[in-house]
UniProtKB/TrEMBL annotation:
GO BP annotations, alphabetical order: protein K63-linked deubiquitination
Region (Disordered): 1-25
GO cellular component, one term: endosome
InterPro entries cross-referenced by the UniProt entry: USP8_dimer (IPR015063)
Keyword tags: Coiled coil
Keyword DNA-binding annotated: no
Organism expressing this protein natively: Periophthalmus magnuspinnatus
Coiled coil location: 111-145
Keyword Coiled coil attached: yes
Lineage: Eukaryota, Metazoa, Chordata, Craniata, Vertebrata
All copies of domain USP8 dimerisation, residue ranges: 12-116
Record's protein name: USP8 dimerisation domain-containing protein
Amino acid sequence: MGDPSDVSLTPEERVRALTKKGSSVEVSDDVPPRRYFRSGMELIRMAHVYTEEGNIEHAFILYNKYITLFIEKLPKHREYKTANIPEKKDTLKKLKDIAFPQAEILKKALLKRFELEYSNYLLKKKEEEEALVQEQSRQRALDAERVRVADMLRRQREQEQFSAFEEMIRRQDLEKERHKVLLEFATPSDLCMYMCVADKKCLHSDPCDRSKAVWRA
């Protein structure tokens, strides 16, 4: 049985749940029928009080208990047919004039209220689903942007590494070219100076004057 307070249920399901609560009545053969009739008077009184207070769910349940008690349950009591119960006639009148009509009026009022609550529930659910879709879309966009930025940074690092490698190769090629040109066109003195500077071992101002040159060990 569903929970009558669960707004996710349809209005009809909630009314059925309340009706089932109202039908939950037990009758014991060890209890005299007259006591049940007196209890029925209290049920009607309390149902009226709940109705006046606007607590129509409880009123609906009590009217249904009253109907269930005197239409379904109590007639099966072993002493029901033989007992002389003055309240029986009055109870049947209350069933016809009060319990059944009031239960029907309250049922319509409950359906109307439950329909409004159900519509609000569906509207809220739709808004939450749309918000969830938007959040998921936003999250996917953020994830895609993070991937794009990470990929861009990776390509940038690779480009920087490649550019550094190209620069190193260019410098090496340039040095080789300078060395080649020097070997082809320089004088012996120029070659001596070049070799001394390149090796960074000669300390004399005139490194090619072997009589004055001082070499590092």
